[in-house]
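Let us work through a complete example step by step.
Step 1: write down the sequence.
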Amino acid sequence: WAYNPLLALHYLEQLSPYEWANLGVGLCIGLSALGAAWGIFLTGTSLAGAAIQKPRVRSKNLISIIFSEAVGIYGIIMSIIFQQKLGLIKTALPAVTDYFGGFGIFGGGLSVGLANLMCGACVGLVGSNCVLADAAEPSMFVKILVIEIFASALGLFGVIVGIVQVTNAIVGK
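Step 2: predict the structure and record it as C-alpha cells.
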C-alpha cells in the first residue's frame, strides 16, 4: 500500500456521513449508559454497606441511584434526537452538507457521551459520600444532596451542548 497524498487530504471523507452519525449516536448512548452504571455502582456499594449498620439510610438515599439513572436517560433521549436528523441520501455521492451533518452528529454524540460519563462518575462519588455522611450524621443529608444536584447538572450541560452542536446538522434530507 503506497502513500497517496490526495487521499490523505480527504481522510474524513473515507467514511460515509451515516457512519460518522451512527458512531456519534452509539457513543452517546454507550458512554451515557456506562456513566450511569458507574454512578450506580459507586453509590450502590456504599448504600449496601451503610445500610447494614444504619438501616434508616436505605430509603432516602435511593435518590442518589435515581440521579445516576437520569444520566443514562439523557443519553437515550439525545440518541433519539440525533437519530431523527438522519434521512435518505438520494444521490450516488453524499453532498458536503451531508458530511457536515454526519460530523455534527458525531461531535454531538461524543460531547453528550463524555459529559454523561463524567457526570455519572461525579454523581456516584458524591452519592457515595452522601450515604456515608448520612449514616454518620443525619443532618448532613440535605446539605450533601444539594451538592449532588449540582453534580447532576453536568449531564444537563452535556445535553445542551449536544443540542447546540446538532441544531443545523442534517444528513440526507
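Step 3: interpret the result. Residues 123 and 151 are 6 Å apart (CA to CA).
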